[in-house]
Amino acid sequence: MTTPNFRFEVDADGVALIVWDMPGRSMNVLTPEAIEDLDGLIDKVAADAAIQGAVVTSGKETFSGGADLTMLQGMASEYARVAKAEGEEKAMRVFFDRSRQLSLIYRKLESCGKPFAAAINGVCMGGAFELALACHYRIVADSDKARVGLPEIKVGLFPGAGGTQRVARLMPTPDALQMLFRGDQLKPAAAKRMGLVHDVAPAGEIVARAKAWVKANLNAKAPWDDPKFKAPSGKVFSPAGMMIWPPANAILRRETYDNYPAAKAILACVFEGLQLPIDLALAVESRYFAKILRSKEAAAMIRSLFVSKGELDKGARRPAGVAPTNLRKVGIIGAGFMGAGVAYVAASAGLEVVLIDRDQEAADKGKAHSEKLISNQIAKGRAKSADRDALLARIHATPDYAALKGCDLVVEAVFEDRGVKNEATKKAQAVVGGEVIFASNTSTLPIASLAETAEKPENFIGVHFFSPVDKMMLAEVIMGAKTGPRALATALDFVRAIKKTPIVVNDCRGFFVNRCVTAYMVEAHKMLVEGVPPAMIENAARMAGMPVGPLALNDEVGVDLSWKILQAAKKDLGPQAVDPQQEALIEAMVVREQRFGRKNGKGFYDYPASGTKSLWPGLAEIAGKALDADTIDVQELKDRFLYTAALEAARCFEEGIVTDPREADLGSILGFGFAPFTGGVLSLIDGLGAKAFVARAEALAARHGPSFAPSEGLKAMAANGETFYGRAAKKAAA
Fold first, then answer.
1. Which of 30, 197, 398, 663 can bridge 503 by disulfide, Cβ–Cβ 3.0-4.6 Å?
2. Alpha helix (H) ranges present in 87-219?
3. Residue 658 phi/psi, 5° resolution?
4. Cis peptide before 468, with omega less than 30 degrees from 0?
């Protein structure tokens, strides 16, 4: 009974082997067709008396990445269609039935009376791991590439096919909640230690061992189907339970500020489910899942963090007609923190790297950064000594520009000074010539001005990395006025090779991400001058959904850099380009107090050699004013942080700096952590509706100045009832 997505065979002992192997895909995913096929195969195993049990495995290198989330997007469209044709009640019934389909199928597998085993040969995530959890036995390949997990929380969802109920019955409640809230990928040994899988074995043995288990356990059933089953942490309403649930609720509030409905639903599902028999518990989970699936937060996060990210990662902005580049060797000029970070990720991707600095000592110091990073990975069990040796062998540290000969791409990452960058460009191109694509890693300097030094400006492009390079997943690719399609294609191929997500933006001061994040930090400076307590500023930003407060973020990027940017803006654009009160604040911090940020151990925070950072007490004196915290509207502070970044993004869109709402949204989330639950800066506006957003922005402008004044383009969108994504869809269809 082989189906389009599964191979099916039964051995002489009556054990069925179900091999998931979807044609035309590099990875198996749960699509409506695959779900239908799986449902039929479960019925076949259950109904055929000659079949004793079954093993589910994959015919690909990985098991499965889980559900195709575009399928879930389609369910929302179906809801709208049915609601319009047959009413809300009918639409909700249809939506609920479809949303719990997988949960019912997995429960049927689990309770059909025959043993099922999962032989997991690689990555097994989300709905696929929920399939494995429904099987009576789970064995994972002992492989560096094998991982299991339930990462749904990262796209605004939660495991809705039984994951919350089975995990909470396999692990102590605190551990189960932590796993569900974090959405981490677990290595085989860790999964076994946590009780999520039964065994780990060499990849070539997992199917045979799974079959042997099935033959030896023909009467197997899930632990929770035993009338004597007891949850690992005991009853919810017990002395032990009361040590778990009040703190869990407090931690949820502290970490999410109620911005993520899915996280709250996880807590409710586990809390309610553990008080019920498994079938009722699964029904409770399905109710919550249907509700979360229709939430605006889930829709926004799925679109930005799954659909858009996938499209951009696969080259949605790569120019058509340009042949793929065969990058083998890259040159990196500047072995400081940024250049050394780029060298590390390039070498990690298997590329040969020439790392250049002013002398051998500086170049070696840059290479030592890679040694430190890979050694940390070894210490955590994520790499081996052989990996370190191979990586370091790929990095050639030298002060000799002649070593750039033969490079397929050169990345300049020297000090943020136009003269220094121009000199590096001339020296490099004297060796490699003008045909080799030259990329400048700059965060503020316009690419068009830097390209004036290049032999061929059409082969000059900006690639703005974010610090630290090894952790930050975004790369901002900047098109100069004369940058050509081959330079863009090469830059995007490089970004893809080093496993970063690219956004393509046009040239201007600060580009896109830095313009938005600067607006966020400047608003904090203004609040400080107004007399808002520093701790309240930081907490309000966190409450708004930011991962770190603006003052802490400013310390990370450098308060002295803020001062340099202010002075450069005044020089190039005139004194009206900066806020005088903000300038006075930063001048006092940098010039008078020599507080440069984390780099010198003192900024808006103090950074003791031992102990945790704390806000600098001297901020009150510098601000010169202190408001009573009880008189401050916290919601207004939150709105100011969100609106200032979103308004700057809208201006960038109107100016043509960013041209694709997908890139604006993903750039804001990956670049500086803009409130992921909103879906990003432009999704925030679309989600609220341009009319409501403009009205609120105008109210903020009346109280806090013209930086909150909506652009003419936003006003037109509000008047016409348009959205950024709606406009993009019309443009794509035209």
1. 663
2. 88-99, 101-110, 127-134, 163-170, 173-182, 188-193, 206-216
3. -115, 135
4. yes
Q: Is residue 402 within 8 Å of 353, Cβ to Cβ?
A: no
Closest CA to 634 of 514, 554, 527, 707: 527
Tell me the fold of 515-656+660-728: N-(1-d-carboxylethyl)-l-norvaline Dehydrogenase; domain 2 (1.10.1040)
pLDDT at position 584 is 93
Q: What residue type is assigned to position 318 of the chain? A: R
- C-beta of residue 513 within 8 angstroms of C-beta of residue 658: no
pLDDT in the model for residue 164: 98
Measured distance CA(529)–CA(44) in Å, rounded: 71
Cα–Cα dist 682/174, whole Å: 36
CB proximity list for 586: less than 8 A, separation 6 or greater: 525, 559, 562, 563, 566
Nearest CA to 160 out of 293, 319, 40 is that of: 293
Tokens for 89, please give them: 């009640």
Residue from 477, 579, 480, 543 nearest 677 by CA = 543
Predicted pLDDT of residue 567: 87
Give 386-394's long-range contacts (Cβ < 8 A, gap of 24+).
Answer: 391/344, 391/347, 391/348, 392/347, 392/367, 394/347, 394/350, 394/351, 394/352, 394/353
CA distance 263 to 174: 14
Residues with Cβ within 8 Å of 579's Cβ and at least 6 positions away in sequence, in order, are 522, 525, 526
Q: Which residues of 91-126 are buried (b: 16+ CB within 10 A; e: fewer)?
A: beebbbebbbbbbbbbbebbebebbbbbbbbbbbbb
Q: What angle do CA 492, 493, 495 make, to 5 degrees?
A: 60
pLDDT score at 123:
97
Nearest alpha-carbon partner for 465 in 432, 488, 499, 433 = 499
Q: What architecture (CATH level 2) is domain 6-294?
A: Alpha-Beta Complex (3.90)
331 class by beta-carbon count within 10 Å (0-12 exposed, 13-18 middle, 19+ buried):
buried
Q: Strand, helix or coil at 409?
A: strand
Domain with CATH 3.40.50.720 in the chain: 329-512
Query: Domain spanning 329-512: which CATH class is it, in words?
Result: alpha beta
Q: Which residue is associated with the tokens 């000799």?
A: 400
Distance from C-alpha of 197 to C-alpha of 207, rounded to nearest angstrom: 15
CATH 1.10.1040.50 domain range(s) in the chain: 515-656+660-728
Model confidence, pTM: 0.93
- Is 525 annotated as catalytic? no
Q: Cα(249)–Cα(258) distance, rounded to whole angstroms?
A: 11
pLDDT at 258: 94
pLDDT of residue 586: 95
Q: Give the residue ranges of the chain where pLDDT is below 70.
A: none
- Please tell me the predicted confidence (pLDDT) of residue 573: 83
User: CATH 3.90.226.10 in the chain, residues?
Assistant: 6-294
The model's pLDDT over 493-505, given as tens digits with 9 standing for 90+, comes to: 999 999 999 999 9
Q: What is the pLDDT of residue 500?
A: 97
Q: What is the largest CA-CA distance in the chain?
A: 85
* Sequence-ordered list of residues with C-beta below 8 angstroms from that of 48, at least 6 positions apart, any chain: none
- Give CA separation, 13 vs 19, 41, 50, 122, in Å: 17, 18, 9, 26
Name the residue among 175, 130, 147, 152 with its Cα closest to residue 270: 175
